[in-house]
Amino acid sequence: MTSRNARWFSPARPAAIYVILVAGAAITLVPFGLGLLTSFTSARQFNTESPLSLPNPPTLANYTALSDAGFGRAALVTALMTAVILLGQLAFSVTAAYAFARLEFPGRDTLFWLYLATLMVPATVTVVPLYLMMAEAGLRNTFWALVLPFMFGSPYAIFLLREYFRSIPADLIRAARIDGAGTLDVIVHVVLPASRSILVTLGLITVVSQWNSFMWPLVITSGSSWRVLTVATAGLQSQFDAQWTVVLAATTVAIVPLILLFSVLGRHIVRSIVVTGLK
């Protein structure tokens, strides 16, 4: 072993890597921990003591204030919006990706790359045209205005699924065709079971992006009827005169469902990365 390799496998090197990883994890997680502790801290203690002090005593008053402010309805609207967009994204993205991956039709590749090129268009550019379309259709400040622009697939989702579907052995699809399966049967009984991990990954990405959506709900809705979590949290800063204990309670309510979802389904993301790398 050369001296260079000896330095690489030095016992101190793994220790240094772990120190860096722990420091990075601390930088990422400590703010969330402080926010969680603050959400159980009374406004009086927060204003008179150090922000790093533990809640003494812990209180649920901040969460009660959220309930009184109608935050529960915002959480329900956000969950319903995310669920509808997720179902639409999966349904339309799967069918479009399969068409681009396995079906032969004139201009298929050209159409795919033109559609993929829309990824380069910033989302803010389309806000005003989408707003005008929703307003002309009489959908402004409605639930459908929140979901319609995002439920018919996306370039990223279709690209991700297309590349995965192309890696599925063609023999499986040909065997299903020989058995008399139509295109929809092939998708449901062959493609989807073989793509479970990538579908879960896409689902998590969609849920996180829509759960945290702020710009479009802020523009297209007004009042409290169809307000989502992000807009409601921003409104709390003025409604409660910068009572950060209440605001951080709201952010905790918004973050916890995503953490639980990722803790349950995160292994599918790792599996999809491993499978994609092997293929």
UniProtKB/TrEMBL annotation:
Topology within the bilayer: Multi-pass membrane protein
GO biological process terms held by the UniProt record: transmembrane transport
An annotated GO cellular component: plasma membrane
Transmembrane segments: 15-37, 74-100, 112-131, 143-165, 186-208, 244-265
Entry-linked PROSITE patterns: ABC_TM1
UniProt entry keywords in alphabetical sequence: Cell membrane, Membrane, Transmembrane, Transmembrane helix, Transport
Domain ABC transmembrane type-1: 75-265
Subcellular location: Cell membrane
PANTHER family attached to this UniProt entry: ABC TRANSPORTER PERMEASE PROTEIN MG189-RELATED, ABC TRANSPORTER PERMEASE PROTEIN MG189-RELATED-RELATED
Family: Belongs to the binding-protein-dependent transport system permease family.
Name of the featured protein: Sugar ABC transporter permease
